[in-house]
Design a protein that fits this description.
heterodimer; A: MetI-like fold; B: mainly alpha; 71% helix
Amino acid sequence: MTPTGSLEPRHAANPRAGRAGNRRILARRFAHGLFGLIVAVLAGGFIASALVRYSPGFEVDENSWNPKLSAQTSAAIHERREYENRLPSFYARYLMAAMQGNLGESDAFHVPVTELLRERAGVTAGLLVWGLAGGMLLGGWLAWLAVWPRRMSFEISAVSISGLLLALPPAVLALGFFLADAPIGIGVTLAIAPRVFGTMRALWSDLYHSGSLLAARARGTAPVVLAWRYVLCPAAPQLVALGGVSLVLAFGILIPIEAICDVPGIGQLTWRAAVARDLPLLSGLALIITFVVALAATIGELVEDGPAGGGGFDGTESMAEPA
Amino acid sequence: MKTVRGMAVVILIAVAAMALFGPALAPFPYDRQFRDATSAPPGGRFPLGTDALGRDRLSRLFYASRTSIVLAPAAAAISVALALLIAPLSLSRVSQAGRMGSPFRAAISMITTVCLALPWIFLFIILRAELPLDTGPAASVLITFALMGVAGWAWPARVFSASIGQMERSGWMLHARATGMGPWRIALVHGWPQLRAVAIAQFRILVPAYILAEASLGLLGLGVAEPLPSWGNLLRDLQHPDLVRANPAIAAPLILLVIVMICLEALQIGQSGPETGAARAKAMGEPV
């Protein structure tokens, strides 16, 4: 409550001041999101460079085995290499090279990491779009069935379908589609849908009980208008945020699916890099994935919170309400 | 709803008993080969048949259940314990007051951010790739589940941070401080009883998530190493449709896994409101 005793915020009397305040808050939130993104990428880069730096055999220099070189020269080479590869300087060089698009060369494929990523990014992006769009549509529809019609049979059916899909490992689900020569994208969709079901059910439930919707229904507003104006529009920021968060889980789901169903995407590349212990490739992947996922999550949270939000990607405030 | 949950509890107890007493119930050791009966169909001697190496599938299923059912809760306990240790540090009054300095809090926040930004399975794969190639089967089991536990702390830590943040802003906390109670006493007498319920909920969310995660890793060949069986590496046979057509009993581990997962899901129903339901969806999705 303000000192005047009114429940309205103080700037409500002065719209210009209110808009300026909102802009300031939005700018602060944007700066906070950007800071979180930069921190995430820097930390991801650090993990990546530390992995390469401490990988087995990294310190070995082939020149030091040259029998034509004297012991002193070999020692000097070794010393120089040790100096050059101290973690902070190595990290700085790795990050500078990464910003110029050079993520090193894959040990297993003997091809630049960026080239491998470029070749496979399209396949994974396609599956991600399929999976996220389809998964959110299916999950949203199941959640709607569980909340909106207010029928026990619908609710039980929706929860059962979601529970059954959740009980199956995503890779097994996709494997079924792969063996049946059906599009794997449907498998990805079915894997993602139950994982967004809970959040969407909570969201639809909140909206169903909102006063504005009840009033609109009482006025006899058409169902299409109800769905658009009182459900989808108010839910849009949360849905965008859910999409951003779901990108992490979608990529996690894609790794086993691509590996098992022989899809030449980034997920399969990750699996191959892990099996071959290709640390330069894994490091490049870590950097790129951290950037993409952190960017998506930051955008999602900025959209969700708007100027009045109270959370951040560090998750110390927004987590108060996990929904 | 009570009936469903009761049935789920009975089934889970039966599976847990099978897992714990599996070695006594199994007709043969999990690694015993019958070279005269490779890929044998189900029959009197081998109720679920044998695999390509002539090992009894039923015996391997008993042992695999023990691996997956016993170690997934252990990994979940590690994650929850780590989260309980880390979450208060990110919000503690000590760090807020600046004595431990804001860089400390920022570092924890940064680590959490990175762990949340990277897909869980990717983080696990990176850590797994750093380990030696000649890891034995027993060590691989421990490493797999320990890494799961260590890599999966960020989500529960996020939830605990939120709960602690709410507590710090609550009226009873203010009242407790006003009465002169020390921070440890507040934490133990008032904080922990409230946090305990959240910790138990997180534990129950993580157990099925880790069972599924082990299955996915096993399918990829990055989980528990042969010859030790787990549900994950038993599922690998499903990649050969000819084998499944010849012996549908190969799908037995998948059926058991689905039954256990559904029972664990059924236990969550009614326990969680929309808030925890959403958290569950997030946490469940992350480690698969």
